Amino acid sequence: MGGPTLLPAVDCCPRGASPLGPNAEEFRRLALKRIKDKYDFRVHLIVYLAVNALIVLSWAVTGNLLTLKEGEELTFFWPIFVIVGWGIGLVVHWYSVYFAPSYSEEQIQREMRKLMR
After folding, report:
1. Count of CB atoms within 10 A of residue 13's CB?
2. pTM for the predicted model, two decimal places
3. 62 near 2, Cβ under 8 Å?
4. If you ran DSSP here, which 8-state letter would residue 18 be given?
5. Are residues 97 and 38 in contact, defined by beta-carbon separation less than 8 angstroms?
6. Around 39, how many Cα atoms within 13 Å sit in the side-chain half-sphere?
7. So what's the pLDDT on residue 98?
8. CA neighbours within 13 Å on the CB side: how many for 56?
9. What b-and-e string marks burial along 82-112, b requiring 16 or more CB atoms within 10 Å of the CB?
10. Is residue 17 part of a domain?
11. Is residue 35 one of the residues assigned to a domain?
12. CA angle, corner 34, sides to 94 and 46, nearest 5?
């Protein structure tokens, strides 16, 4: 009473067939690849943040923020080179995972035929 009504499962396909048709295995492979790519990007992002935090901390400890005496100036913030350089790579990785085009089997086959000529 008051809960969702469950409908019986309807078998949309013959036994052993996929609702995606004959390309089900290809869709599965692509789905697994996308999941792996997204996971790899998240790992890359975490490593980027952790390593750059340690680099900034080392900059701060070695004669900068934490040991600064009155009247002294900060030294040049050299970690910016690592942060920006690696950040560019991280942005490219992000784009390739979330916005890069996917290629159809037809496009792949056409390119393979061109290569075989």
Report:
1. 11
2. 0.66
3. no
4. -
5. yes
6. 6
7. 92
8. 9
9. ebeebeeebeebeeebeeeeeeeeeeeeeee
10. no
11. yes
12. 45
pLDDT, one tens digit per residue, over 53-94 is 999 999 888 867 767 777 777 778 899 999 999 999 999 999
Structural domain count, the chain: 1
Burial tier of 59 (Cβ tally within 10 Å: 0-12, 13-18, 19+): buried
Q: Which two tokens mark 112? A: 């393979």
**Over the stretch 1-45, which tens digit does the pLDDT of each residue have?**
555 554 444 444 445 545 555 577 878 888 898 899 999 999 999
Dist CA 74 CA 76 (whole Å): 7
Token reading at 68: 């600064």
Structural tokens at position 2: 């008051």
Position 58 in a domain: yes
The boundaries of the domain holding residue 58 are 24-98
Q: What is the pLDDT of residue 38?
A: 95
- The reported pLDDT for the residue numbered 73 is 77
pLDDT computed for residue 29 by the predictor: 84
Helix axes 79-98, 24-61, angle to 10 degrees: 170
